[in-house]
Design a protein that fits this description.
With 319 residues, the chain is mainly alpha-helical. The chain is built from eleven helices and two strands; from the N terminus they run ααααααααββααα.
Length: 319
């Protein structure tokens, strides 16, 4: 199919993003349901309730962050007033994750406020299904100049994240051929150089490093769809948001990986600053700068190579 078909059909990249997050939610539910809270991180529930509680929090952070980008894509594909209104409403619900205290890394038990962003994520899923059914066809975005870079970054991120993938399934990499020698996971170490609490290097359950991996993979996949977004303002906004998401994900990958695989080995006491929540700091300044550089590079590469055909003006919204 030509690039014009990609503009009018459902992009499978969106479906793959949902598959990644749903698969992780299932693994999370099973692990938190079967393991006692003391083996996990900052949760108190156990059994089916404990699993459901942690998945609800996960629907806020980090799923709501990628759902916002998905909503931009589905709203553009259908371009109907009712779809746009529903997408905006879902986005507002998802944005609840940014409110202070809705997700607290020091207490990851579900709270009533988590239902707001969770509803936004469910709405985004529903709109994705509606878009797929309405468009009928499904076409991958055309080959792009940055695909090799995307693949290389994704591969490297997965390699770094292997301890967190194992932790999500509830086991250590100790004893696993080769991986058990490369990664430190089950060894008991101090939580930080200044805290006397001792914990496994990589605790069982979910890690914000795995959130970062999912966000990075989601942003890389959705970035392939950006050139086919027909509304110019939406295309620019989505591109900037995904660039910020990539920079944010890299910051969290480095933070969690450095802490567990470098600091806890005793190689240094210097910690990479945490960047889960936006702050006025050097670390967040680097994230914003990195996002700007990524976006500029994406524009530059797009101008050098062939681009999908994009309408010059947004189509009129249909009732």
């Amino acid at each position: 199919m030509g690039s014009g078909d990609a503009n009018r059909s459902f992009p499978p990249e969106v479906g793959i993003v949902w598959v990644l997050f749903v698969a992780d939610a299932i693994a999370m539910f099973v692990t938190y349901a079967r393991l006692p809270p003391r083996e996990l991180y900052h949760v108190s529930g156990s059994g089916l309730e404990g699993g459901a509680s942690r998945v609800l929090v996960f629907s806020n952070y980090s799923t709501a962050l990628v759902a916002i980008a998905v909503l931009a894509v589905v709203a553009d594909r259908l371009a109907r007033r009712v779809t746009t209104a529903a997408a905006v409403a879902a986005l507002v619900l998802c944005a609840a994750v940014f409110w202070p205290g809705v997700v607290d890394q020091a207490n990851l038990d579900a709270k009533p406020s988590n239902a707001i962003a969770a509803l936004g994520v469910l709405a985004a899923c529903a709109l994705t299904v509606v878009t797929r059914l309405q468009l009928g066809g499904s076409t991958w975005s055309p080959r792009q100049s940055g695909d090799r870079v995307r693949a290389a970054v994704a591969f490297l991120a997965v390699v770094v994240s292997l301890p967190w993938l194992a932790a999500e399934l509830g086991f250590f990499l100790d004893g696993v051929p080769l991986l058990g020698r490369v990664y430190q996971t089950g060894k008991i170490e101090r939580e930080t150089p200044t805290v006397s609490t001792v914990v496994p290097t990589v605790h069982h359950g979910h890690h914000h490093g795995l959130d970062a991996l999912l966000l990075l993979l989601g942003a890389l996949l959705l970035s392939r769809v950006v050139p086919s977004v027909q509304r110019r303002g939406l295309r620019l906004g989505l591109g900037l948001y995904l660039a910020l998401l990539v920079a944010y994900a890299v910051g969290n990958l480095v933070n969690d990986g450095w802490d567990e695989q470098v600091v806890k080995r005793g190689w240094t006491n210097w910690l990479v600053p945490g960047v889960i929540r936006p702050t006025v700091s050097v670390a967040w300044g680097l994230i914003v700068l990195g996002a700007a550089v990524l976006y500029a590079l994406a524009i530059w590469r797009a101008k050098r190579g062939p681009r999908p055909v994009v309408a010059q003006s947004a189509p009129a919204l249909r009732a």
